[in-house]
Amino acid sequence: MSFYDQLKFDANGLIPAIIQDQGTGRVLMMAWMNHASLEKTIATGKTHFWSRSRQKFWMKGESSGHTQTVKDIAFDCDGDTLLIQVEQIGAACHEGYKSCFFRSVEDRGAGFKTTEPQLETPERIYGKK
Amino acid sequence: MSFYDQLKFDANGLIPAIIQDQGTGRVLMMAWMNHASLEKTIATGKTHFWSRSRQKFWMKGESSGHTQTVKDIAFDCDGDTLLIQVEQIGAACHEGYKSCFFRSVEDRGAGFKTTEPQLETPERIYGKK
Does position A129 have pLDDT exceeding 80, yes or no? Predict the structure, then answer.
């Protein structure tokens, strides 16, 4: 039975993909895929997503060079979420952090703190706009 | 500045929460929270979610006993996804696996395989329905 038959894309034809660094176990980001970007991810071995804000197909790292090489694609019991193991080049976050989850809650929600170093500035990654 | 001010709930008032086992780094599940379930999670230290299919507030483990004790709550650069570190009692998945992501793609999407042992059967967890 095909893997695709197990999946449930949402009303917009999308499925969330959690991206995890295979070496460290760090969760790097979550982004959305449609059927075409998932096929492209499997065919090329590099993660491709669908941007909901830009309504655009994109390859992770296409402008930054921070690509993700796919090592494993898992899916959950309900078939409505993907968990993809990758090797991440550079920072996964467009703000220059290894992981997009670089801030954590403090004081029971009253505040938050930054929990990891910024590896690069967005200006260095993408150049001056 | 409050942590809540950083978050963007979707059109249905929901935000996805990735649940990760703090000890092993295993991603256990993804589920959805509304503002009330997030507040309850922070107040009690146990994960609470909003079920989209049942339209119901629930505490993880309320019928199975497989509760999750919260160790850290992180949020991503866009403020539209949570990453929660927990201590998981028993199986996170209602199908009796430690993680809901117990199947992975094989043969470039043509098939899939089970990647971890089933710890318990659903019948043992929930009793005969």
Answer: no
What residues of chain A, 26 to 55, have a C-beta less than 8 Å from chain B? 26-27, 29-30, 39, 42-43
- CA B99 to CA A77: how far, in whole Å? 9
E strand or H helix at B70, and its extent? Answer: strand B68-75
Residues of chain B with pLDDT under 50: 129
pLDDT tens for residues A48-78? 999 988 889 999 999 999 999 999 999 999 9
Q: Identify from A1, A32, A77, A107 which residue to disrupt to test chain B contact, counting B C-beta atoms within 10 A and taking the largest count.
A: A77
Provide the ipTM.
Answer: 0.95
End-to-end CA, chain A: 47
Total-model pTM:
0.96
Rg of chain B, C-alpha, whole Å: 16
Quick one: A58 exposed, middle or buried, by C-beta within 10 A (0-12, 13-18, 19+)?
middle
Tens-digit pLDDT profile for residues B70-89: 999 999 999 999 999 999 99
Q: How far apart are CA B110 and CA B122, in angstroms?
A: 28
Contact A2 B109 (CB under 8 A): yes
Question: Hunting for tokens 């990647």 — which residue is that?
Answer: B115
pLDDT at residue B128 in the model: 56
Whole-angstrom Cα Rg for chain A: 16
Report d(CA B80, CA B75) in Å as an integer.
7
| Cβ–Cβ under 8 Å, residues A57 and A50 | yes
Sign, Cα dihedral of A75, A3, B127, B97: negative
